[in-house]
Every structure is written in C-alpha cells, then in structure tokens.
C-alpha cells in the first residue's frame, strides 16, 4: 500500500479527500489508514480502493457511514451521514453530504461496497477531525517580539536569532484527549514536556502571508501528563522574515518578525475542557543558542548558550521576557492540507579529503537537499564551520561561484566536554560537498550523516529498462524533483533564489506525478498562484510572489492552466478545474486586452529559455541569463490555452463560454499560420521549438503536417546530429511530439545521447541530479544551478506513457490506455509501475528474437485498452492460453501491426510468438 492512499492531510481544490482501501481476502473489506487531523473543509471527499486478485472486479454500489463517535459507528449508526446503498461505480472523490461539521468535531467513517463478485464487509474504522473553522475559534492574540535584539542585524545580509517561548500549566483532572493547533511564522518547532511534537521539519508551508497563513494540528494526548506540564516553541525566520529584505525593497516582499498563534485544547474524562492559548502570560527570549537562521546563509548555533530543560516543567524563566502581543499577519488562517516536510532519507558520506590549513572536504557522493548532522568533540567555545557547495574546483576547493551571494554556511560553537551531536533546525541547502574547518583532529566519515529533506510524499512510480542510461537519468530526476519540493515546487535549492518559478514546472509537473504523489503540493501551489493574481488579472512569474515579478508572458503565467490540466488528467477530480477556471479566464482576458494585436499575442518575456549554445565551447563562460522573446511562442500558447478553456467551460458548467473560446481560437490559429508559416514547411526561423509547438498544439493545417514534421526530423537527425536543441519551452513537448508522429526511435536516440547537449552529457560530466543548463559545465556560474528540473521537459511523461505504456484514457485512470513502444532498437525491456487513484498499474514487457512477453496489472474498478504488437490473434497467448474467447479480454480491432483489446481489471501475462 502506498502513501497516495495513506494521507495525513489532503486538499483537493477546496474539498478535502480521505482515502480508505478495500482489500479482498476471502471477501472484500477495507483496511484502516492513517487519519488526518484539523481539516477546515466542511465537505471532504471520501475515496477508497478495491484490491482483488480476481479479474474483472467492478463496483456496483457503495454505502458510507460517518458517525460522531467510534461507538456509534461500531453499531452501524451514521448519525452524521448515512448514504444508504448508492448504485454507483464511483469510488474516488465521493463528497461528504451529511450534517454540518463543526470545529474540533471528530468524524469516524467506514465504507462497504457491492461488486460484481460479491459484497464486502464493512471497513475498519477511519476518522478525521475538523480544525478551527472560524476566526473566533482561534486565540485573541499573536505573540512575538517585533524587533531586532542587539546581537541581531536586519541590514542586507539579515541576521536574526530564533525566538523561544514557553508556558507552564497544570492538569488537575485526567486527560481524555488533547489537540494543538499552531501557526508558527515563519517556521516553528513545538515541544510538550520536552518532547518534540511530530517529526515535521521546516513547518508550516510558506505562503504569501498577506494572503493566507497555514495552521498545523496535532494530537498531543500522549504528550500530556497529570499535574504540571510545559509547552515550548521555537520560531525561525523562514520566508516570513525575508532574507536580503533591504537589498532590493522594490522586488523582495517582507512580512515582519517571527510570531505565533497557538491553541491547545484539552478534554478531560469528566467531559469538561480547557484551552491553553498564546497570550502575555507566556515567557520568551531571543538570547538562545540559535543566533541566526537564514535560508540563504545558514544557521549559527552557540551551544554555550543552551538552556537545558527550557521546554520542561520547573525551568527558571525569571530572566526571560514577557511575551509581547504583536500585530497579526493580514493573511487568512487556513488548515494546511499539503504535507509538511520531513527528513525522508539519510546518507552516509563517501569520503573525507584533507586540504591545507586544517580544512577537509566531505563528499556525500550525491547532490542532495537538506542538511548535515555532525558529531564533534572539543573545547568550550571552539567553532566548527561547515560550508556547502554542489561541486569542487579543479584544485579540490569548493566551487561556490554559482551560489551568488548565498553563504550556505553553518557555524557550531561547542559547549565542551563530551561528544556533541548537532544539526540545524531552520535552514536547508542543496549540496554534495562540505568544507569542514575548526577541527583539532581529523574527522571521520562516521561523524556525519546527510539528511535529505522534502515534503512527506510517497514515491508512487517505478521505472527500469534495459538501457542503463535511461535508468540513471530517472534516478537523477528523482533526486532533483524530491529535493526541490519545499511546500511549493522550487527552481533550485542552493543559490540565493530558491523560488517557485511558474515556467519551470509547466509540463514537468505532469511527469513528476508519475513518480511522486504530488497532488497536494500542486493543489496548494495553484492556490498560491491564484492568491498572487492582481485585480486586473495579471499573474506573476513567481508564486507565492516573494519577488514582485509580473512580466506578462504566456508561458510562465500560463502554468496555472497547465498544472490544472495535469491534476485533472491524473486524478480525475473536476474540482481542480472549477477552482481555477475563473482565474485562468480573467488572466487570458487581461493578456488579450493588453497584448493581442490582430490575434497575435505580442507579449513574451523569456522565449525558449536557456536553449543550448550551438556548441559546448560557444557557451563557455557566457551567462545564460538572456531573454529572446518570441511572438510565435506566445501566440501558440495562447491558442493552446484557449483549447483547454473550451474543455474547461464544459466541465465547469460554463457552456456559454465555449463558443467564444472556439471562435477566438480559430482566429488565433489562422493569424498564426498567416504570420509565421513558411511554405517550405516550417514556422518562424525553422528552429526545433518553433516547429514542435504548433505541430503538437494542432495548429498546423492538415495538408502541411507531414512537411512540418519532416523539417523537425531533419533538424534532429541532420542539423543536430541526433540531438535536441530546445530550451525550457520546447523541451516540454519534444519527446511526445516525436513519438506521436511516428518516430519513437528518434526520441529514444535523443534520450540516450551522451554527448552535448543531452541528459546523458550531464551524467557523463558528473551530474547526480539535473542541471539548469545543457552546458552546465562550461557556462558562466551566475545562472548555473546543478540541481534544477526544468530541463526534464516531458521526458518522464514519455517514459511512462510511451515506453511503459501507462496513460489515462479518461481523466483519473478509470479507463487506461496501454500502448508501449516496443519496437525501438536497443530497448529490450521496460518494467514500470504507477499508483493511480484506483490502485497500482503495472507494465512489464520484455522481448527477444522469438517472443514478446508483457505482464500487466490493472486496478479493480477500472479497465484498459491494450495494444499488443502482433499481426494476428493466433500468435497471442495469455497465461498460457490462446487469447480468443477468454473472459475479461475483448478483441476490438486491428490497427497496423497492433492488435487492440479491451481488458478488465486484474493481472495478465501476454505472450506473442514471432
């Protein structure tokens, strides 16, 4: 079972979704899952999976019970909601439609289903709890210190120490249950009686705090004790107290000093309750061991200033300050529905190399994102400095030029005595190498642990093939994608940027979804984008808009439409479209009013961003930070988004908009071809991207498609000698375009190149993630991240949909299209899996000179259309039997060298003899 269906908190565009799983043993039944806390959506969605070893299992009906207590649910009393028996095959996104839910309400639920093979038992009990639904439910006061202290600095390179707060209270009765809800800005760590509440790190997720702030809720019943108790919290800066806030005040948003709002709700066994809340009875200090914590520069920790037991009862806080009431942020308090970050993986370094001056280079063996835990022994006041970078200079020193002015340095001051173990609390960075200094002895590899940090989401896709390079690219992609999930999708994790640029994820997010359960993070990001939209309709290049960049270009801002389309396609949840339709429509109207002339979209900002220099030497030492605006690209994307809006208008009940989008799309298409098409069969300057985009978007007149595609092929095969030449925009469509127009072999050639420019070239030159630039080893370091994902383009989509043959035939994978490319020379097997909303889909094919074997798994309550590479039915067997007249396998038609079948759910083993 994967975490796609073991969800702590899941927002589906305004509707919270809870998922259970139906598991067949001798009968169908539901398995209990982890239960989410503190949601603030009054009509959550309920989903479940059916897992069965039988073929052709389909749901016919369901019944859901939701009760206010476990006891009532055990008696099959759904006092909050009883659907009765509902005749429906629907098993995902079943909207709660019972009694109105209230703050802190606990909702217990279970489901049973009827299928074509029998009736299930009731599931085990699942539950969710409601959070604080109204403003008045929260405490009256935020606390903090809205000022810098003498040891702080709030100039350009900001230095601000962490704030520590504590309060003691007494339980005079036996505790039945307790929950705590906290908004700790920018970042917090929460303790009760000395124990950290949860293993979340770098919480909560960042937002534009003038629009919304995120609250986390935890069950802390087990943390409390009879009698005296202590609650403590540490506040870090995060994005709230902005780094470099005075560097470019016209550009960088800042929100204030760290602050906190907390409600601890305790229910006693006698039915009474009490609240522990933030007020001026709390004590606080900023004179603690965390002297500064800055996402770009690092964390400085002085262990000599530790106050042992500060978060336990009995600590002497008489020298601490009285907590101060501070102004609340203007953003609305919302329950955080996307996962917080955690330490998701640990790594041991591979080597330590000595440098001059008692310095050492630690090699993690992998470009990773997170931090380093150290063990060290020394004298009181001795300082250990840790400097982080992605690579080394030729002389073995750290290469830091590409970090710009991010210091990426931690400083630890020892308290002296026994061995000390330390790791930072409120910072992260992207790195492979660490320069160590301050040691009086040579440290050992065993003294260090790398901790990889990203959102607590499951890896839901696997991919392996007979080509080792394809497999390594997949591994590099995994590390790059995971590391840049930080409550929002970042561009990079190492330099003084780390921003959620829209353009970087346009179609890349689609491929990511086959690998990671990223539904909640992208749901949250779409909310960030909507919150960043101006009243006139403008959408920024970065959202949340920590940087005020509103450059008005179709490709970056249009990511709101692309991500919406990805989530709808991959999940089947129409709510995503409903939530984003108004914002997309408003943005398109804004762009049309300002920039459309004779149906040509005249405004673009970046063009095909970061296209590769013609040779590796041509780009040596040159900055890639150059823009080449293209009306061709902006107009083509305008057409593409209009086509999406035609579909969206129907899905959202805005049918009256359909004809307007349709008429405008046709006019844009006609104007585009008149302005940009050359009768020789190419568009614009005959660049690869110039031709791919209109062809894949369906803008090329039917009679001209062959000519345009021939020009694409010529560019790749002859001009580029089998290589790509796309930047960020064109790479998002390259692989699918080549594949869908009949040249999967050419896509494979591009994917498996090891010479410049290619993904393989990156690996040949030491990359363990994905570079920002195709010429990342020679370009000027100013814009040269070694851990970006934007140049993945649609590669992972091609891996899954084309090489493995796993694609949603209708949104959400209720019906699956399985059409793998099995005739590519040199590719002899692909083994892939993907956890869809209905369950795991597997595609494992292998071929040799005599046979083709394909093992398939189709989740219950779904079906699939499969394309078998055979010229007749007689050559096909399934599980050792001739394919004809088999139950759950229906012949549809022959299509060239493929035999097409419709199959029901279950496991299949096809074999074709040549």
Automatic annotation (TrEMBL):
All copies of domain Alpha-L-rhamnosidase concanavalin-like, residue ranges: 354-453
Example of a GO biological process term: carbohydrate metabolic process
Domain Bacterial alpha-L-rhamnosidase N-terminal: residue ranges: 173-344
Residue span, Alpha-L-rhamnosidase six-hairpin glycosidase domain: 459-803
Keywords from the UniProt entry: Hydrolase
Pfam families: Bac_rhamnosid, Bac_rhamnosid6H, Bac_rhamnosid_C, Bac_rhamnosid_N, Ig_Rha78A_N
The EC number(s) this enzyme carries: 3.2.1.40
Catalyzed chemical reaction(s): Hydrolysis of terminal non-reducing alpha-L-rhamnose residues in alpha-L-rhamnosides
Domain Alpha-L-rhamnosidase C-terminal: 805-880
Molecular function via GO: alpha-L-rhamnosidase activity
PANTHER family: ALPHA-RHAMNOSIDASE (EUROFUNG), ALPHA-RHAMNOSIDASE (EUROFUNG)-RELATED
UniProt protein name: alpha-L-rhamnosidase
Biological source species: Pelobium manganitolerans
């Amino acid at each position: 079972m994967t975490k796609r269906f073991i969800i702590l908190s899941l927002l589906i565009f305004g509707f919270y979704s809870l998922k259970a799983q139906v598991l067949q043993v001798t009968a169908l039944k539901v398995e209990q899952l982890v239960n989410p806390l503190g949601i603030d959506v009054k009509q959550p969605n309920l989903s479940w999976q059916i897992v069965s070893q039988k073929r052709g299992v389909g749901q016919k009906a369901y019944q859901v019970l939701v009760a206010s207590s476990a006891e009532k649910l055990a008696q099959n009393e759904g006092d909050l909601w009883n659907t009765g028996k509902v005749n429906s095959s629907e098993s995902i996104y079943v909207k709660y439609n019972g009694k109105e839910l209230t703050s802190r309400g606990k909702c217990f639920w279970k489901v049973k289903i009827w299928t074509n093979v029998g009736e299930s038992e009731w599931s085990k009990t699942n539950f969710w709890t409601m959070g604080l639904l109204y403003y008045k439910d929260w405490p009256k006061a935020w606390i903090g210190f809205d000022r810098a202290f003498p040891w702080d600095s709030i100039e350009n390179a900001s230095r601000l120490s962490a704030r520590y707060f504590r309060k003691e209270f007494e339980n005079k009765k036996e505790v039945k249950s307790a929950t705590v809800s906290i908004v700790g800005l920018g970042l917090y760590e929460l303790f009760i009686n000395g124990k950290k509440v949860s293993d979340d790190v770098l919480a909560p997720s960042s937002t534009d705090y003038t629009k919304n702030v995120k609250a986390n809720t935890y069950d802390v019943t087990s943390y409390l004790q009879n009698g005296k108790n202590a609650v403590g919290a540490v506040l870090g800066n995060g994005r709230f107290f902005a780094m470099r806030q005075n560097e470019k005040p016209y550009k960088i948003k800042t929100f204030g000093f760290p602050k906190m709002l907390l409600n601890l709700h305790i229910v006693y066994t006698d039915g009474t309750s009490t609240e522990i809340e933030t007020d001026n009875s709390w004590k606080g200090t900023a004179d603690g061991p965390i002297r500064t914590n800055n996402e770009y520069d690092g964390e400085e920790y002085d262990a000599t200033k530790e106050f042992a037991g500060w978060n336990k009862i009995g600590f002497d806080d008489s020298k601490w300050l009285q907590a101060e009431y501070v102004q609340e942020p203007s953003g609305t308090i919302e329950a955080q529905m996307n996962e917080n970050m955690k330490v998701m993986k640990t790594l041991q370094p591979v080597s330590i190399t000595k440098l001059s001056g008692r310095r050492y280079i630690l090699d993690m063996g992998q470009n990773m994102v997170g931090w380093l835990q150290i063990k060290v022994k020394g004298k009181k006041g001795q300082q250990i400095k840790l400097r982080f970078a992605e690579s080394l200079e030729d002389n073995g020193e750290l290469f830091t030029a590409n970090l710009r002015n991010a210091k990426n340095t931690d400083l630890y001051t020892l308290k002296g005595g026994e061995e000390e173990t330390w790791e930072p609390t409120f910072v992260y960075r992207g790195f492979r190498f660490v320069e160590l200094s301050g040691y009086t002895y040579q440290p050992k590899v065993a003294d260090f642990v790398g901790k990889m940090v990203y959102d607590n989401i499951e890896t839901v896709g696997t991919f392996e093939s007979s080509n080792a390079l394809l497999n390594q690219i997949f591994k590099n992609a995994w590390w790059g994608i995971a590391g840049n999930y930080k409550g929002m999708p970042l561009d990079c994790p190492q330099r003084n940027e780390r921003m959620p640029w829209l353009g970087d994820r346009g179609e890349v997010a689609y491929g990511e979804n086959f690998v990671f359960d990223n539904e909640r993070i992208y749901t949250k990001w779409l909310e960030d984008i909507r919150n960043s939209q101006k009243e006139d309709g403008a959408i920024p290049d970065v959202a949340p808009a920590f940087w005020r960049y509103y450059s008005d270009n179709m490709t970056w801002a249009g990511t709101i439409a692309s991500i919406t389309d990805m989530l709808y396609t991959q999940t089947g949840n129409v709510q995503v479209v409903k939530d984003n339709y108004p914002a997309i429509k408003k943005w398109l109207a804004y762009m049309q009013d300002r920039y459309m002339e004779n149906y040509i979209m005249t405004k673009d900002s970046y063009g095909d961003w970061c296209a590769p220099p013609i040779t590796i030497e041509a780009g040596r030492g040159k900055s890639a930070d150059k823009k080449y605006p293209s009306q061709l690209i902006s107009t083509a994307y305008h057409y593409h988004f209009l086509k999406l809006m035609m579909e969206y208008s129907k899905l959202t009940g805005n049918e009256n908009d359909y004809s307007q989008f349709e008429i405008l799309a046709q006019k844009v298409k006609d104007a585009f071809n008149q302005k940009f098409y050359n009768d020789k069969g190419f568009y614009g300057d005959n660049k690869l991207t110039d031709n791919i985009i209109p062809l894949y978007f369906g803008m090329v007149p039917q009679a001209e498609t062959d000519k345009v595609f021939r020009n694409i092929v010529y560019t790749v095969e002859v001009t580029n000698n089998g290589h790509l030449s796309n930047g960020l925009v064109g790479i998002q469509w390259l692989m699918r375009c080549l594949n869908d127009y009949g040249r999967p072999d050419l896509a494979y050639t591009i994917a498996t190149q090891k010479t410049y420019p290619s993904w393989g070239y990156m690996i040949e030159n030491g990359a363990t993630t994905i570079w920002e630039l195709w010429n990342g080893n020679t370009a000027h370091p100013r814009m040269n991240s070694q851990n970006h994902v934007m140049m993945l383009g649609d590669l992972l989509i091609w891996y899954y949909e084309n090489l493995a043959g796993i694609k949603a035939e209708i949104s959400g994978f209720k019906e699956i299209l399985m059409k793998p490319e099995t005739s590519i020379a040199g590719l002899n097997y692909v083994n892939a899996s993907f956890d869809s909303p209905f369950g795991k889909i597997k595609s494992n094919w292998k071929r040799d000179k005599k046979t083709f074997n394909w093992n398939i798994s189709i989740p219950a309550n779904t079906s699939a259309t499969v394309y078998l590479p055979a010229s007749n039915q007689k050559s096909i067997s399934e599980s050792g039997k001739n394919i004809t007249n088999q139950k759950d396998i229906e012949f549809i038609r022959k299509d060239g060298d493929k035999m097409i079948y419709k199959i029901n759910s279950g496991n299949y083993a096809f074999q074709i003899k040549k």
